[in-house]
């Protein structure tokens, strides 16, 4: 790799990292406002009610299809993609985002006060689908990324609408789920932003892997 190419990589990382940290901060602030500031200010979120009853059955079936087995299969596939593409930090980013976002949503549902209705809690199924889409966007080749993002956005919207239709989540719960996913995506993207630098380093010294780097 030439010096100019190396400098371009470093400059690209330096430019993207502040924006990603800002995105993570926006997500975190959104969560604080939704689940701390507004409830403490006495704002009561409305109770979610089923809507569009003719499609409620299909919406419920869609939500029931999202389970731990499906999520683990997709995570394993994304891990294989990271290995096949020799992305030094790809596996770390996937394993950081996919468990991190759902676990944060689960913790929020456990820790939020009773004054916040269950339907306003971050919906775990929306978080699961959105985090898989976000992880895929970080590791798939750039030529297929638009298709992945398009299909993933459609899937996320479908699951979000299904949750609202069945009253599993209110619009607040949908927003909270997306804020959690967006925060974790930004953090994982910071990791991936340094992946080209790690690739360059490992080409110079194959023994200096990302795993060994973390141990130092």
Automatic annotation (TrEMBL):
<feature type="transmembrane region" description="Helical">
    <location>
        <begin position="124"/>
        <end position="140"/>
    </location>
</feature>
<keyword id="KW-0472">Membrane</keyword>
<feature type="transmembrane region" description="Helical">
    <location>
        <begin position="20"/>
        <end position="42"/>
    </location>
</feature>
<keyword id="KW-0812">Transmembrane</keyword>
<feature type="transmembrane region" description="Helical">
    <location>
        <begin position="147"/>
        <end position="165"/>
    </location>
</feature>
<keyword id="KW-1133">Transmembrane helix</keyword>
<feature type="transmembrane region" description="Helical">
    <location>
        <begin position="62"/>
        <end position="84"/>
    </location>
</feature>
<protein>
    <submittedName>
        <fullName>Uncharacterized protein</fullName>
    </submittedName>
</protein>
<feature type="transmembrane region" description="Helical">
    <location>
        <begin position="91"/>
        <end position="112"/>
    </location>
</feature>
<feature type="transmembrane region" description="Helical">
    <location>
        <begin position="171"/>
        <end position="193"/>
    </location>
</feature>
